[in-house]
Amino acid sequence: MAAVEPQTLRSLAHHVRTAAELDKRDPVTAYYCRVFVMQTAMKIDSRSPESRKFLGGLMDNLEKAKKELADREEVHDEVVGQCHVENYALQIFIYADNEDRAGRATRAVVRAFYTASLLFDVLSLFGELSDELMEKQRYARWKATYIHTCLKNGETPIPGPLAEHKGDSNPAPSIGFFGSDTHPQTPGSHLADDIAAPQASPTAPTPSIHNSLAPSGATAAVQSSTTVSLTQENKNRAQRLAKFAVSAIEYDDMITAQDNLQRALRLLTTGQE
């Protein structure tokens, strides 16, 4: 791959850098990062000599990676690949969110939030993001910008969604199992210029999201004898959630596995997640 992206593709620089950082820690996610860069770059500029050189190097890298990952199901099955990338992105997001809410907002947390937002971009390879993931992406980008600005100005960032600290009588919209959230705005380009690629994979303790699992609702759904008419979309979504759970178990992420299984169960028994 070309060492430096041409000016026309500078918007993809951090996706490229993230892929390089993940080569050893998570080669599958690194592979899909580069697939995203390739597809996006082709839409932006596939004609200039600089871009063609860059794309040629990127293609060589992808071919090499595909051979090295020939025995990985995640590369050959897009559903499994999507599950893998999504789980990795959520792990980083959860790490950053937990650190922030604990009042430990550091530059590493900024990088984690921003990297998670980039990996949510990569997930668009597999189709349109769910509303839940889009909320997380907006929140991650906003949080990265907010914490970065606070640290740059010598201020102490307020943990969690700001609405929680402003006495807002209207609850902020939910972002899945992370509680209430504001609608964050996309960060300016200055943030991408200032933030380096992640230096290390998050090694925080397994995040606690038991509050999101709502076992009482799931139990009630199981006990219900009402037959729910499921659409094909419902069935496909339940199947995907089950595969996500299996993948999470393989990575010893039991919390995510439980969450996905609970959501699949609720969907199959009530028609809603």
TrEMBL record:
It is found in: Cytoplasm; Endosome membrane. It is a peripheral membrane protein. Gene3D superfamilies: Immunoglobulin FC, subunit C, Vacuolar protein sorting-associated protein vta1. Keywords: Cytoplasm, Endosome, Membrane, Protein transport, Transport. Residues 235-269 form the Vta1 C-terminal domain. Residues 162-217 are annotated as: Disordered. Pfam families: Vta1, Vta1_C. GO terms for cellular component: endosome membrane; multivesicular body. The keyword Membrane applies. Residues 12-153 form the Vta1/callose synthase N-terminal domain. InterPro entries: Vta1-like, Vta1/CALS_N, Vta1/CALS_N_sf, Vta1_C. Residues 196-208 have a biased composition (Low complexity). GO terms for biological process: late endosome to vacuole transport via multivesicular body sorting pathway; protein transport. Belongs to the VTA1 family. This is Vesicle (multivesicular body) trafficking 1. It comes from Eptatretus burgeri (Inshore hagfish).
